[in-house]
UniProtKB/TrEMBL annotation:
The keyword Cell cycle does not apply. This is Ornithine cyclodeaminase. GO terms for molecular function: ornithine cyclodeaminase activity. Keywords: Lyase. Its EC number is 4.3.1.12. Pfam families: OCD_Mu_crystall (PF02423). The keyword Lyase applies. PANTHER family: KETIMINE REDUCTASE MU-CRYSTALLIN. InterPro entries: NAD(P)-bd_dom_sf, ODC_Mu_crystall, ODC_N.
Length: 350
């Protein structure tokens, strides 16, 4: 029997497994990592015009959606594969799973393959908090967290680390989810109050995060629940036919989005006329558009998650690899001695 030669360096791509990602998060610390991710996302939002942008490519089914999210800054290309299946948790599976890749635009070779289920939770939370730091009332110390599933602890800790939130008021239709979230957040420097209704959860909150999963139009927040001056961070309405807010709230709020071409398809604003004015968050971050202009204003971040946030998160992970070595070299790319003799490489492997 012949022994195949070991793959060459050109064949190997750094692969960050779930285990390595967990080690990386613990090595850096979750709050410093959320802050680091927010910095990378902010830096990329500030060079927004450089990027290739397209609404994500979605494949819908009765049960959920599978999406591809590509972008490039001209030097590096990235994409994420992500699903959303609200029924999954009842079957012991997660609603959202993901993985992603970065590649060198110059030769098309992948330079990183990474798990992105944890990374998506981190980048979504970092984006939410980056936007809340820009739009929420300055003295915001209390957040209502409606929907206490997989994303909820990450959202809570990002709002603590990046916006100075100190109290989280939890509500979920499933009390077991609220209990899980309260237990996970214990001892992490937040005062946590479980509530028995969304109405109770929003009492005294300056920031309201909705992060529920349902494959239909839902009304998590109705118009009469929303007072002047709050910031709403709406995460869960992120697919055609899947929204969380009563349309009347949208008419009272100033609405901020990532990429309007995608948000008009997937976000809360799918309920509005396509010409309804919205502000792109990158323009606020670069000082080209105004954010919060009064204490009475209701600001709404109609978040659906955009490819550039995943690109930033992958870039952040790539930049940690050299010092942490938390990756496996994956034999991903065929590397024949003669680049045109792929078949010969195969034959010699018998
Ligand atoms: N905007 C983004 O960038 C982004 C990123 C990741 C996930 N998401 C979306 O966020 C949502 C939550 O994701 P997850 O991974 O936490 O899902 P999850 O299934 O783990 O948790 C969702 C929770 O919402 C609760 N819920 C459902 N209906 C409710 C209601 N009417 N009131 C209160 N609670 C309710 C469920 O009981 C569950 O605990 C999903 O819709 C997902 O698609 C958005």
């Amino acid at each position: 029997m012949t022994t195949n030669p070991l793959p060459s360096d050109k064949a190997l791509v750094p692969f960050v497994s779930v285990d390595h990602m967990m080690q990386l998060i613990h090595h850096i610390g979750i709050e410093p990592m959320l802050c680091g991710l927010a910095d990378y996302i902010e830096a990329d939002f500030k060079r927004w015009q450089l990027f290739d942008k397209t609404p994500r490519v979605a494949s819908h089914s009765a049960e959920g959606v599978i999406e591809l999210m590509p972008t490039s800054d001209g030097e590096v290309y990235g994409f994420k594969y992500v699903n959303g299946h609200p029924k999954n948790t009842a079957e012991g599976l997660q609603t959202v799973t993901a993985f992603g890749l970065l590649a060198n635009v110059g030769n098309g070779y992948p330079v990183l393959l990474s798990e992105m289920t944890l990374l998506t939770a981190l980048r979504t939370a970092a984006t939410s908090a980056l936007v809340a730091r820009t739009l929420a009332p300055q003295n915001a110390r209390t957040m209502a967290m409606i929907g206490n599933g997989a994303q909820s602890e990450f959202q809570s800790l990002a709002m603590k680390a990046i916006c100075g939130v100190r109290e989280i008021r939890l509500y979920d239709t499933d009390p077991k989810a609220t209990q899980k979230c309260a237990t996970n957040l214990a001892g992490l420097g937040l005062s946590v109050t479980p509530c028995t209704s969304a109405q109770e959860a929003i009492l005294g909150a300056q920031i309201i995060t909705t992060c529920t999963a349902d494959k239909q139009y839902a009304t998590i927040l109705s118009d009469n629940m929303i007072g002047a001056g709050v910031h709403i961070n709406a995460i869960g309405g992120d697919c055609p036919g899947k929204t969380e807010l009563a349309a009347a709230i949208l008419h009272r709020a100033d609405i901020f989005v990532e990429y309007p071409e995608q948000t008009r398809i997937e976000g809360e604003i799918q309920q509005l006329d396509p010409a309804h004015p919205v502000t792109e968050i990158w323009q606020v971050l670069t000082g080209q558009a105004k954010g919060r202009t009064s204490d009475k204003q209701i600001t709404l971040f109609d978040s659906v998650g955009f490819a550039i946030e995943d690109f930033s998160a992958l870039r952040y992970v790539r930049d940690q690899l050299e010092t942490t070595r938390l990756f496996h070299p994956l034999d991903l790319l065929a590397d024949p001695d003669d680049p045109r003799d792929l078949f010969g490489m195969l034959q010699r492997a018998i």
